[in-house]
């Protein structure tokens, strides 16, 4: 059985800062690498967890769309917070992106690169 994977790239999400792809399409699923809350053009993060959550989810959405998928197909999300104290505010913004049938999710406090407050990865059906 021949299995293929396709690398997904878009200018509408930040370019990788390391040796990884923005996304991978394989076997009907799109795997989106962790997206931090930075603007893909300016490479700057907005102030506050709400703004960074919104930007990180917009970046996830951009990678999905580049693969021909959408937020509606997301089945799993990983949320990594610098401070678990930001959970409620993050969750409020998150619910705007997944108002119905939210995907399975894991949320943990983590040590994140630079001064980022959040990183989000996702797996979606295409």
What descriptors fit this protein?
6-stranded mixed sheet; globular; 126 residues; single chain; 30% strand; alpha+beta; 60s Ribosomal Protein L30, Chain: A; 2 helices
Provide an overview of this structure.
The chain is an alpha+beta fold. It has a single domain, classed as RutC-like (60s Ribosomal Protein L30, Chain: A, 2-Layer Sandwich). The protein has helices at 49-66, 87-97, and strands spanning 5-8, 23-26, 29-36, 74-81, 104-109, 118-125. The protein has a 6-stranded mixed β-sheet with strand order 1-2-3-6-4-5, covered by helices on one side. A hairpin with a 2-residue loop joins strand 2 (23-26) and strand 3 (29-36). Helix 1 packs parallel to helix 2. It starts with a strand and ends with a strand.
Topology:
Blueprint: E1 5-8, E2 23-26, E3 29-36, H1 49-66, E4 74-81, H2 87-97, E5 104-109, E6 118-125
Parallel strand pairs: 4-5
Antiparallel strand pairs: 1-2, 2-3, 3-6, 4-6
Helix pairs in contact: 1-2
What is this entry, summarized?
The chain has about 130 residues and is α+β, with helices and mostly antiparallel strands.
Distance between termini?
20 Å
Q: Compute the gyration radius: what is it?
A: 14 Å
- Per CATH, the architecture is 2-Layer Sandwich
The total count of helices amounts to 2
What percentage of amino acids are in beta strands?
A: 25-35%
Number of strands: 6
Summing up helix and strand content along with how strands pair, one would put the structural category as: alpha+beta
Task: Specify the CATH homologous superfamily.
Answer: RutC-like
How would you sum up the global shape?
A: globular
| CATH class category name | Alpha Beta
User: What is the helix content?
Assistant: 10-25%
Order of helices and strands: EEEHEHEE
Uncertain regions: pLDDT < 50 for 5+ in a row?
none
Major beta sheet, strand line-up? 1-2-3-6-4-5
Largest sheet: 6 strands, mixed
Tally of individual domains: 1
* Mean pLDDT over all positions: 96
State the CATH topology.
60s Ribosomal Protein L30, Chain: A
């Amino acid at each position: 059985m021949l299995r293929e994977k396709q690398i997904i790239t878009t200018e509408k999400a930040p370019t990788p800062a390391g040796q990884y792809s923005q996304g991978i399409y394989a076997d009907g699923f799109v795997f989106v690498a962790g997206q931090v809350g930075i603007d893909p053009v300016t490479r700057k993060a907005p102030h506050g967890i709400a703004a960074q959550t919104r930007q990180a989810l917009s970046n996830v959405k951009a990678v999905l769309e580049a693969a021909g998928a959408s937020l509606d197909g997301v089945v799993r999300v990983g949320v990594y917070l610098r401070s678990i104290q930001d959970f409620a505010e993050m969750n409020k913004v998150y619910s705007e992106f997944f108002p119905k049938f939210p995907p399975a999710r894991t949320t943990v406090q983590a040590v994140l690169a630079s001064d980022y407050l959040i990183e989000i990865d996702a797996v979606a059906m295409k």
